[in-house]
Amino acid sequence: MDLNFKGNKTTACLLLGAALVICAISGREFMANAGFDDLVPAAGFERKMLSDYFDGLRGSRMDTPVFVQNGAKSGGSVLILGGTHPNEPSGYVSATLFLENARVVKGRLFVIPFANASGFTNTLPQEASPSRIHITRSDGSARSFRYGSRDTSPIDMWPTPDIYIHKSSGQELAGNESKNLNRAYPGDPNGTPVERLAYGIMELLRGEKITLAFDLHEASPEYPVVEAIVAHERSMELAAATAMELIGQEIDMRLEPSPKNLHGLSHREWGDYTDTLPILMETANPSQGRLRGRTDETLALTGLDKAYAKAAALGRLFVPYGPDGKPLSQRVARHVASISAFLEMLSLFDEENGVTVENVPGYEDIIQKGVGSYLGGIGRSN
Ligand SMILES: [Zn+2]
Q: b/e per residue, 291-312, with b = 16+ CB within 10 A?
């Protein structure tokens, strides 16, 4: 017997109203992640889409902008890929820095800042990652970038298989790797969304005859391949000369050969399936690590974490870790200075296919002035 029916109805209406408000707020936040973060390309860049190279991506959430700038002198061509893993900000911020500052004198420069666009629309479950980071510019204003997920969004790829079988090699990996762009190369024009994305990038490498291509990453400081250059055997001589050049600048980048039996990765398949010289680079990002404490925007920007300081004191890390942590500016400076050194070496090794890019800040400039000084047009010399 219900003596208080009227009261129950009011409560039900209130709860329903509250649920609708929560849905509206979270739905708005969710939809706000559907587009791309703003970019301010330097003069001379033309904007294309990856679907211009592989039509199978057109109209899908896997399509992504590709920017190209041609120098006045003919030369080779270079691709800088950021955002293969959208939870590794130094990669896509470094690609953005090139896009927003570079002046190409010789050859062609291609930049894809947000390689896995779908991965930028979500965060990894149970990692408590921030959804955005804000980088302060020299005028005090901020540039905001999404902090996404290593994986393609479940909206685009669902369900996750128990085992991921890499098609061209038959290699078996854990099921979640099926959503990882850097296990999907050389891709498949009729495959899963991420296999089609990988195929699109391969088509760009082949179609534009890219001489040298970079895939920019970050990894946790307790991972052995960090502050490192990973080179395909065809890229190794160039990479070794670059690593020596960087030591001369007091920038230590470990040099690692791309394992021949590990398939699906850019540094392996770009080299095996195209004529490009592939390079993957890793900086150290404590906000991805297993030892970290609170995971928030501050950690992503500063890399300061007391558990990492303790691990460093116990000799458990593969990289130096001082009281300054691993700030984003330092991580970006490492990627940018390494790319600049590679371009210099490429011109020495193969003058005809050299690519010359001006107006890109050096390592010390970025550390001293902060990466924000080189975003959004601020800090340019012209
Ligand atoms: Zn990565």
A: bbeebeeebbbbbbbeebbebb
Residue pLDDT, tens place only, 101-141: 999 999 999 999 999 999 999 998 888 899 999 999 988 89
Distance from residue 80's CA to the centre of ligand 1 (Å): 14
CATH assignment of the domain containing 353:
3.40.630
Q: 23 with 86, same domain?
A: no
CA of 73 to the centre of ligand 1 (A): 34
Q: Residue 93 belongs to what domain range?
A: 42-374
- Ligand 1 centroid to 153 CA: how many Å? 16
Is 171 buried (19+), middle (13-18) or exposed (0-12) by CB count in 10 A? Answer: middle
Total tally of structural domains belonging to the chain: 2
Q: What is the pLDDT of residues 247-299, one digit of tens each?
A: 999 999 999 999 999 999 999 999 999 999 999 999 999 999 999 999 999 99
Rounded to the nearest angstrom, the distance between the alpha carbon of 337 and the centre of ligand 1 is 19
Domain presence at residue 296: yes
Ligand 1 midpoint to CA 218 (Å): 5
- Domain assignment present for 379: no
Looking at the structure, do residues 11 and 93 belong to the same domain, yes or no? no
Say how many Å lie between the CA of residue 85 and the centre of ligand 1.
Answer: 5
Could you tell me the pTM of the whole model?
A: 0.93
